[in-house]
Amino acid sequence: MPPSIFSPLLSSLSLLLYCIDIYFTYIHIFSLFIVAMAANGVSSGLIVSFGEMLIDFVPTVSGVSLAEAPGFLKAPGGAPANVAIAVTRLGGNSAFVGKLGDDEFGHMLAGILKQNGVQADGINFDKGARTALAFVTLRADGEREFMFYRNPSADMLLTPDELNLDVIRSAKVFHYGSISLIVEPCRSAHLKAMEVAKEAGALLSYDPNLRLPLWPSAEEARKQIKSIWDKADVIKVSDVELEFLTGSDKIDDESAMSLWHPNLKLLLVTLGDKGCNYYTKNFHGGVEAFHVKTVDTTGAGDSFVGALLTKIVDDQSILEDEARLKEVLRFACACGAITTTKKGAIPALPTESEALTLLKGGA
Fold first, then answer.
1. 10-residue block means of pLDDT along the chain (363 residues)?
2. CA 218, CA 230: separation in Å to the nearest integer?
3. What's the confidence (pLDDT) of residue 73?
4. Residue 14: per-residue pLDDT
5. Strand segments (E) across 193-265
6. Domain count within the chain
7. Are residue 27 and residue 60 in the same domain, yes or no?
8. Where is the chain membrane-spanning (predicted)?
């Protein structure tokens, strides 16, 4: 048979083999790119943050009561939203799931999330309830007291049926607080979201973020905060929350370990300007704080959590390696410290370069 008959077939086969070679070369290069991103601390896994977002009104001067404040700085806030933006500010990927009022503040907050690179497909808007507001009193030392306007606010009215389950199932880490446990229907939405995330294989991260004025009583707060305790893989509490949950005035290892549960991978106790303590199944220790000029502590814990999650989302083996975990926690402490140097939470959340600059300067 004349060779000319095979020429078109051979040409097509050569082209096919060439395309296959290009395809596998692309896959190889892409895999190397993903590995390089992980090695450089660039997060590719999605961190989904569930709960409330609101407007914080912060006095323009510290050390005065709300009535005495000459004016207020309007700042977007809400712990889960703070965490979501802390993640993207550091180069990670995050999404927010929650409910806002179908009002100017609600759409402003949704816009702020989008401007900061947070996926907003999980946001619902309520036409009948307003976006939550909080007036924050700043004491002279930068610590806060809160007065909330939620009667009810939109975040409290999120229902299980309104959850964007596709977003939740996409999470490699699912982060939440306890404020969404206070009333129905949001409590049921919270429980369903946790269940769906866990079934999809997400790491569950819990920061109770205690706000006693929002609860009917201290006893109810303690009961509900602990009601989901054994579901979390990572739990972060402050020293004040440790005292509240344990009923002890001791901030020590014994008190912290009383909060341990068998499925927990990491328990963190933040100590303000004294750093943090960490506990795992195999080791425990502490990380010192960075000393900065504190203006407002709002969002410092959220910045800390966002930094931690950004670093572990693609490599959870860090939780089993003490040296690497301490390095990550130093980075998280640096992020938390920087956040205290400005008024408001979200405007003060640092970039990775800002955190690295503080790290290089030392504690």
1. 52 56 47 42 80 90 85 91 98 98 98 98 98 85 79 97 98 98 98 98 98 96 98 98 96 97 97 96 97 90 98 98 98 97 88 96 64
2. 20
3. 83
4. 59
5. 203-206, 234-238
6. 2
7. no
8. 29-50
Q: Based on the domain organization, do 92 and 28 belong to the same domain?
A: no
Q: DSSP E strands: which ranges in the chain? A: 46-50, 54-59, 72-77, 93-101, 119-126, 133-138, 144-149, 173-176, 203-206, 234-238, 266-270, 276-279, 284-287
Let me know how many helices (H) and strands (E) the chain has, helices first: 11, 13
The pTM score is: 0.86
The DSSP letter of residue 33 is H
Q: How far apart are CA 118 and CA 317, in angstroms?
A: 26
349 vs 239: CA distance, rounded Å = 22
Q: What is the DSSP letter of 140?
A: T
pLDDT at 4: 53
Task: Examine the domain organization and report whether 196 and 277 are in the same domain.
Answer: yes
Whether residues 39 and 122 share a domain: the answer is no
Residues contacting 55, CB < 8 A, separation 6+: 74, 75, 76, 77, 105, 109, 131, 132, 133, 134
Is 5 within a domain?
no
Query: Which entry of 253, 302, 315, 321 is annotated as an active-site residue?
Result: 302
Residues 52 and 167 in one domain: yes
- Virtual torsion, Cα 34, 40, 45, 48, nearest 10 deg: -160
Distance CA 11, CA 277 (A): 66
pLDDT at residue 269, rounded to an integer: 98
The whole-angstrom separation of Cα 247 and Cα 241 is: 10
Q: Identify the pLDDT of residue 2.
A: 53
Both 30 and 151 in a single domain? no
Task: Give which of 269, 241, 254, 250 is closest to 329, Cα–Cα.
Answer: 269
Contact 343/58 with Cβ under 8 angstroms? yes
Domain that includes residue 33, residue range: 14-43
Burial of 347 (0-12, 13-18, 19+ CB in 10 A): middle
Query: Catalytic site residue 302?
Result: yes
Q: Which of 337, 340, 347, 211 is nearest to 355 (CA)?
A: 337
